[in-house]
Structure formats: C-alpha cells, structure tokens
Amino acid sequence: MFIGQYNHTIDEKGRMSIPAKYRRDLQQGVVVTRGLDHCLFVYPKSEWEVMAEKLSRLPVSQKKSRAFARLMLAGAMDADLDGQGRVMLPEYLRQYASVKKHVIVAGLYNRLEIWDEDAWREYRTKTELESDDIAESMNDLDI
Amino acid sequence: MFIGQYNHTIDEKGRMSIPAKYRRDLQQGVVVTRGLDHCLFVYPKSEWEVMAEKLSRLPVSQKKSRAFARLMLAGAMDADLDGQGRVMLPEYLRQYASVKKHVIVAGLYNRLEIWDEDAWREYRTKTELESDDIAESMNDLDI
DNA sequence: CAGGTGGTCACCACTTTTCCCCACTTTTAT
DNA sequence: ATAAAAGTGGGGAAAAGTGGTGACCACCTG
C-alpha cells in the first residue's frame, strides 16, 4: 500500500529515484503510463497486468476503444529499478506530464503518481477551494 | 505483451527497425497490414492466424464486412526481421499510412502500430480533447 | 547469349542511447 | 556525534538505431 508524498528530482538522463519506502513492492518492475489530469501513473507489474488484460479485450472495431487502448497501452512503458532504485522515464512521458526537474511522487494505495511540482501546487490550491463540493459528491460513494 | 511507443525512422530502402524490446516475440516473423485510422498493424505470425480466421468468418453478404476483409487480408504482407531486427515495408503500405521518414511505433498488447509522426501527433491531440469521454470509458471497465 | 539494370538481402560500420556501476552529498536514525 | 541509508550526479561499457556497401538474383535489352 502506497501512501505519502515526496519531493524528488529528475536528472539529466531522465531518471527518477523511487522513494525508498515503495521499493520493496516494486522490485518485480513497474509500468509507467499516461495518467489522468496530466500526471503519470506508476503501477507494480502485477497490478498492471490485470488492467492490460482488460484493455486487450476492447473491440478493435470501435473507434473509442481504439483511442482508449492507444492512450493507455501505447502510453505505457515497463521499467525495472536500477541499482540505486531509480527508473528511466522516456521523453514522451516526461513531455506528457510536462515534468522538468522537480517532481512530486505521491502514493495512492495501489499506484504512484508523478507530478510536475508546479502543476501539483496548482492542482492542490484549486481543489482545496472546491473541497466542500468534492466532499459532498463523495457521499454517493459511501465515504 | 507489447506496450510503449518509440520514435523510429524509415531509411531510403523502406526498412524500419523494430524496437528491441519487441523482437523476441517477433522472431517467428510478422505480418504487416493496413490498419484502421490509416496506420499499419503488425502482428506476430501466430496472432495473425487468429485474426485472419476471424476475418474469414465475416458475412460475405455485408458490404462493410467485405470492405473490411479486403482492407486487412488483401493488404497483408508477411516479412522476417533481418540481422539488425528490421523489416522491409513495401511501397503500397508506406503510401497507405503516408509514412515518410519519421514514424511512431506503438505497442498495443497483441499487435504493433506504425504511424506517420505527424499523423500520430494530430490523432493524439484530437483524442486528448475527448479525454473526458475516455475517462468515462474507464468507468465501464472497472479501472 | 552477354551485358546491363534494378531490386532484394546479408553484412559491415558509425552514431546515439541506454544501462550498470562508482562516488559524493544530504538526510535520517541510533 | 557518528553511522547508516537515501538521494543525486556522472563516467564508461554495452546495446540499439541508422546508414551504407557489396553480393546475388531475376529480368530486360542490344
């Protein structure tokens, strides 16, 4: 279970170190994909495979299914941690999330999220203002 | 399982190198064919058999099925990787996908797709606008 | 039939990227 | 305060990507 948030940096080679607390659960490798709200999602391989299997069953004939599969599958990239517990983030993913050097790594139970530091701050202040609204909506989910 | 996306180039002889990660599953040879949305589909030979079988079962009486079968079956071409892991893309396929020099190779679980770089970028920005719709679709899949 | 032409294929060579390891700095824990 | 762990940066070896040359074959042409 991943929780918490960390400030990390991406070096000139596009590598980012995974918070030490998370590493044990990610030894088998990770899959990084384009996430929602322009951040990156990081799944342990085992979690990912369940999702990929679902995605593979979408009908090729449907336009929307193809678009969805292309976003998620073609957007995904599997990686292993190096000796220092880092992963390489390919150029196209860094661009998608517009991450430069300073990023936020957040734990969200079964996945991590990688945010550009500025985008994160912006998102946080925006949602804080709407937090009452958001809380109301959560009613529907038994929370 | 093919995932991820890569920038590759087609040389003057029409050859394109397959991303190294994919090669092991394509050693037995590939089938390249006209795909949907004006890109090319690349299947491992074994996957192609499954696909071709499905196509052969489409009702001959339906105009649209006939068109689809002709697109995929008549457009197909089988090829082997050369010593450097490349395939030769025949002229008529390059023309169909209007690929010139710079292409995107994307992994979509059981097939690859080859896109002209510009066409890909255009497609991405277009579908990005529909990302709300896409998020909805995730709901249907329990993701 | 000999020679020329065009195309394909296998192999070689150069460049770029990726991966692996070592080293230094900063933070955390004892 | 000291030791240990985590985060960060960089150098060098290896692999991948790309472009090119030359052998080989079929076909056309004089």
UniProtKB/TrEMBL annotation, chains A, B:
The keyword DNA repair is assigned to this record: no
Compartment annotation: Cytoplasm, Nucleoid
One Pfam family recorded for the sequence: MraZ
CDD domains reported in the protein's UniProt record: MraZ_C, MraZ_N
Keyword set includes Cell cycle: yes
PROSITE patterns, alphabetized: SPOVT_ABRB (PS51740)
Gene3D superfamilies noted in UniProt: Transcriptional regulator MraZ domain
GO cellular component: cytoplasm; nucleoid
Protein keywords: Cell cycle, Cell division, Cytoplasm, DNA-binding, Repeat, Transcription, Transcription regulation
Any Gene Ontology biological process: negative regulation of DNA-templated transcription initiation
Residue ranges of every copy of the SpoVT-AbrB domain listed in the record: 5-47, 76-119
One annotated GO molecular function: DNA-binding transcription factor activity
NCBIfam families (alphabetical): division/cell wall cluster transcriptional repressor MraZ (TIGR00242)
Quaternary structure and partners: Forms oligomers.
Family: Belongs to the MraZ family.
Protein name, entry field: Transcriptional regulator MraZ
Organism encoding this protein: Candidatus Andersenbacteria bacterium RIFCSPHIGHO2_12_FULL_45_11b
Lineage, opening ranks: Bacteria, Candidatus Anderseniibacteriota
Gene designation: mraZ
